[in-house]
Design brief:
With 346 residues, the protein is of the alpha/beta class. The protein starts with a strand and ends with a helix. The structure holds guanosine-5'-triphosphate and magnesium ion (MG).
């Protein structure tokens, strides 16, 4: 048995979260065309008979202009420092032309991965590279940046080349027992994903500064035998953004709620009643107290650490997560059930 952690590292928007979802065959990490979509370290667990790969999706490394951005970079740096295997991802597409040179930012990010950590170079978005003959010189230029264990061109969107990366990772993982129960899909609780699904719908429907100023907290998560009631608050950075999120006659909020609820029902496995409130929390992303309230703390937002020893039969009861999203001044909410594979849940 081989098992270990695999950090997905790279600039924002290169397709790390899309790649994680393609590896797992389940959409757990939210994606959007906006840079800085991912704000937390999110584990995606891929288990089979002889290996367990614990992927860590991370926020894209960028020049931070506020505390949230600094924390996002810290999350990515620690994943780079701690992982067993690193996947360094950069993107292809129109950037790859006759005069292609590696991005200096990519060079800097590669410098955050310890020299001893086996690293796979993944060039994503090759579906957008034309003509294909430009790929080889670009891969050659990128390969010179470090000693890579493997170099794999992929299209995460079309799930091309993804299996090959998984195979390469497996060969590099240390021998050892599984770090999580095999039916578990992530280290994050279901409530985290519900908040993320709401944020994803907003990211996909808003532009410019609005999406970057949105955070979603879960205020109530009441599980019933047939139906759950979930109440969330969408925090916006400016009073004027509230109207944008609500939309004409509430149309935007309705669309966000309907789409997020449908996805959340698939995750939870039964019907959900989803209530969404919108609140202006000016410059929450630069306020340490507000950041902590919203779950952006140093403990990777309530994630569970992988176990070090062989798996036990009985699970311990969950302890409250200091970083779980919660309303201001309220007691910490219980961490909630870890997200599981649909097969395991039914
Ligand atoms: N054409 C094409 N687009 C892709 C591919 N992979 C991802 N994308 C698109 O690239 C955009 C960014 O994808 P994400 O997966 O959110 O990127 P990310 O690296 O996780 O971004 P951050 O979370 O901001 O760091 C989305 O619009 C994806 O649909 C690919 O293989 N081909
Ligand atoms: Mg992402």
């Amino acid at each position: 048995m081989r098992a270990g952690t695999v950090a997905l590292l790279g600039r924002p928007n290169v397709g790390k979260s899309t790649f994680l979802n393609a590896c797992l065959g389940e959409r757990i990490a939210i994606t959007s065309h906006h840079p800085q979509t991912t704000r937390d370290r999110i584990a995606g667990i891929l288990s089979d008979d002889d290996a367990q790969l614990v992927f860590y999706d991370t926020p894209g490394f960028h020049r931070a202009s506020h505390r949230l951005g600094e924390r996002m970079n810290d999350v990515a740096s620690s994943a780079a420092a701690e992982c067993d295997v690193a996947i360094f991802m950069t993107d292809g597409g129109p950037r790859i032309d006759e005069a292609f040179k590696p991005d200096p930012e990519d060079v800097r990010i590669l410098g955050t991965i310890p020299p001893k950590t086996p690293t796979i170079l993944v060039l994503n978005k090759i579906d957008r590279v034309t003509p294909r003959s430009l790929l080889l010189p670009a891969l050659t230029a990128l390969s010179a940046l470090r000693e890579f264990a493997a170099v794999v061109p992929v299209s995460a969107l079309k799930a091309n080349g993804v299996d090959r990366v998984v195979k390469e990772v497996k060969a590099l993982l240390p021998e050892g027992d599984a770090l999580f129960d095999t039916e578990e899909l992530s280290d994050k609780p279901v409530r985290f994903f519900v908040a993320e699904l709401v944020r994803e719908q907003i990211l996909r429907r808003t532009r410019q500064e609005v999406p970057h100023g949105v955070a979603v907290s879960v205020d109530a998560f009441e599980t019933g035998p047939k139906r759950s009631r979930i109440a969330v608050t969408v925090h916006v950075a400016k009073e004027s953004h509230k109207g944008i999120i609500i939309g004409d006659g509430g149309a935007m909020l309705k669309a966000v709620g309907t789409h997020a609820r449908k996805r959340a029902e698939t995750l939870v496995g039964h019907p959900i009643h989803l209530e969404i409130f919108v609140r202006a929390s000016p410059r929450w992303f630069d306020d340490p107290e507000r950041l902590a309230d919203l779950g952006y703390t140093d403990d990777a937002a309530g994630a569970r650490a992988p176990r070090k020893k062989a798996k036990k039969k009985k699970k311990k009861p969950h302890t409250p997560a200091p970083g779980a999203p919660r309303p201001r001044d309220a007691k910490p909410a219980p961490r909630g059930e870890p997200a599981k594979r649909a097969k395991a849940r039914s």
